[in-house]
Amino acid sequence: MRLSEQSAVRPRGGPTTSEALTRALEGFDKRVAGKVVVCLPDLYLDQLVTLPRWAETQKQLTSAALRGGGRIRSGGQRLVVGGNALNTARALASLGVPVRFAARTSKAALELAKREADGSGLDLSLVRTDGKASLTVALEMGGERTNVQLNDAGSLEGLRLEDLGEGVAAAIQGAAAVHVANWGQNVAGGTAFLAETAKLAKQAGALTFFDPSDLWGREKDTLGLIREVQASKGLDWFLVNEVELRELSRVLLLNAGGTSPCAHDDMQGQGREFTKRVPGGLAAHAARRAESWRAGKSEGAFDEEAALPLRTTGAGDVWNAAFIAATLAGTEPQVRLEFAQRLARAFVTTLGAPPSLAALRSP
Predict the structure, then answer these.
(1) Which domain, by its residues, includes 247?
(2) Is residue 55 included in any domain, yes or no?
(3) Most exposed residue of 8, 88, 263, 307, measured as fewest CB within 10 angstroms of its CB?
(4) What whole-number distance in Å separates Cα of residue 245 and Cα of residue 239?
(5) In angstroms, rounded to a whole number, what is the distance separating the alpha carbons of residues 318 and 343?
(6) Is residue 142 assigned to a domain?
(7) What pTM was computed for the model?
(8) What is the CATH classification number for the domain harbouring 159?
């Protein structure tokens, strides 16, 4: 089953929506109507591969390599269109938010994206097809669907805002919000791309959201990214998972002198310490908890039992889309976190298109 198919499996044993969230859903569509979000810049072709837990997968890989090559049977494979920015854009469209998506890719990748997004209302007119497709093989291992990815960044590597054409700048001028994703795969130009896009967005009065993606192994670049955000003050929100938050805070605090005051798994402490030193807000999500901070203080938190996932690839992007949509709708911080967490839960416990508001409104 492709992610674009509408005959989605319903969530398995999802929790009851709180009264506060139920009230927030009333008139949600009207509150986001006309508030255009520009999402950029990555579009990936993703091969999703289901495998056993890492210990068993490692054993099979080692055996195949030692005997000079061989096959490993997977639990299933799917070819889908993905990428942090495109996934977020599709999820926003499913929530009724008008979205314009910009990227540089190949003609074949765009055609597949058009088929996947058909009928969603997602505007793909800003996508350029004079580039090379970005490719991922995503290994989802074990019952927890631990996600390990093999990436070829394609035209995303070294991408500059000007490479996307003049239409993107015009789109940003008319946007209520701009979401930049996947700094982690634009090694040569990610920080400059974010800085230029955020500057243009703030000049237009748009909110700015940023999902850096995987930061691992790039401490010097990560520190440079943080210093750029500190200096420019052009970013309204960092949107991260718990691993990305851990690395951001580790790099910042260790380079500030001394040792980090936060334990490895202290998401609350990491969020407080990071936002004491970096302007703007930060929202982090994990399987069991979501929390947001600004100026060293928690704005709200939401806890729930983790779901048994049918998939994990793209869950963080759905969370980001829900957070952005709820921000544009003027939802209170605590409810905004519940909204994002519940939508991500609905996504990982179903197969099909990103969830709509009906996933939370239905009994």
Answers:
(1) 19-45+81-135+154-356
(2) no
(3) 263
(4) 9
(5) 7
(6) no
(7) 0.90
(8) 3.40.1190.20
Euclidean distance between CA atoms 266 and 129, whole angstroms:
43
Residue 55 C-beta-side C-alpha neighbours within 13 Å:
1
Beta carbons within 8 Å of 87's beta carbon, 6+ residues apart: 314, 317, 318, 321, 354
Evaluate whether residue 109 is within a structural domain: yes
What is the chain's length? 363
Cα dihedral 314, 320, 325, 327, rounded to 10, equals: 170
Q: How many domains does the chain have?
A: 1
Tokens of 336: 């905004």
Structure confidence by residue, pLDDT tens digits, 91-121: 999 999 999 999 999 999 999 999 988 888 8
Distances in whole angstroms, Cα of residue 349 to Cα of each of 87, 104, 243, 357: 17, 31, 22, 15
- The crossing angle, in degrees rounded to 10, of helices 219-232 and 190-203 is 20
* Residue 144 located in a structural domain: no
Mean pLDDT (the chain) is: 91
